[in-house]
Amino acid sequence: MVDPLSTASAIIQFLTLSQALFVFCKQRYQSAKNAPKELKRIIEVVTSLDKTIRAIKAVIESEEYAENPVHLQTLAVEGPILSCIKHLEEVRSLLGDDNSLNLRGRLGWTSKGPKIEEIIDKLETEKSTLLLQLEVSSLSTIVEVKKILEGMNEAPSKAPKVSDDQIYKWLRAPEQETIHDLVHDRCHPNTGTWFLDSDDYRNWKDRSVIGSLVLHGIPGSGKTVLCSSIIEDLKALCMSGVGFIYAYFYFRFDDSQKRTISYFVRSLIKQLSMRATIPEEVYDLYHSCSYGQEQPTKGQLVKTLLCLLSNSLFERVYIVTDALDESGSSEREELMDLLYNMHASCDKVCFLMTTRDDPDVLDEMPGALPHKRIRLDSNDVNADIELYVKHKLTTNRKLQRFPQGTQEEILSSLTNGADGMYNSPEY
After folding, report:
1. Which residues contact 293 (CB under 8 A, 6 or more apart)?
2. pTM for the whole structure
3. Which residues have CB under 8 Å from 41's CB, separation 6+?
4. Which residues pair with 316 in a beta bridge?
5. If exposure means fewest CB atoms within 10 Å of the residue's CB, which of 20, 74, 183, 307 is most exposed?
6. Residues with Cβ < 8 Å from 299, sequence gap 6 or more?
7. Lowest mean pLDDT among 6-20, 255-269, 326-340
């Protein structure tokens, strides 16, 4: 006899596992160069299976089933669902926890690829079995289920098809990855270690202490450089932690697209969507704007972002913002309200922000937004400066010509004379 509770439990277990595997695979597929084709197939079959299982879930939760539980006996889906769970676990085991972007080499894809293809074929077979069970069902609910499977519920039949890339382009989010790469490429590999190893940062990252971190200091104290190291650390964490996701934004006073709330929100929506799956809320936003013929209002963007942060795919969301003081002063209060609303609407959000010692910014921090302020100490920043200067002295051919004593004098003068000022021409 079919146990309704057992079937429901299997469905929940499958959906949890499939969502985690989807995020895991999509992050690696987007990050890797020449990603294996099998990785794309995993994403496709998991997406298709997820829709099928959700359709079955809709049937089981329908009023007709509630009134006539005997119908459940005719929908023998628990066995195939459990088989799917087993196959997904096998795929996840084969993928391992390797964070390398070079998947083809590091994961030994030559031997693992065929095994994964074989498992994918089994998943396709199980999906066919589940679809057959739905087809033979005599429930009137099946009509609605078919609409779900065909993607007819969310948009009118006349709605034009749209690709992910079209939506990303339509969002007009300012470029952030290029800025980040430029900043981080200038860093010494161990820059910011003193902060990444600190209790304050570890507790924030592990959520041992609930609240935001606000790093502040004098102009040129290396806040942006440190911010780039933090982003790289979070990137590695999110690649290994299922359900963890991150986004970042570098405010810039000299670029109108990098200092307004609208573009800040656009960027977060795009990044969070790209690192997982574009949620229905983003598609809804696109459709509500005449299918991309119009641009969304600031209110629509904020509403979509708040919904996105509550997405069940995400267990933890890290958001890093650099140079809050360079955001538009006319929108400063509104920006602080937005940060508070983001925190209030979703307890999964972890903020880390940097700013100059600017009272206009620090005093605007809403008291209802739990946060800890950390002022960058010149001794800590000087340690990063020393690492950078040492690196230049050992890798720059012109500097290598100087005698050892002269090099030591250069190191001492630049490190001690910097007094916590770690600036570069661009940043």
Report:
1. none
2. 0.64
3. 116, 117, 120
4. 244
5. 74
6. none
7. 6-20
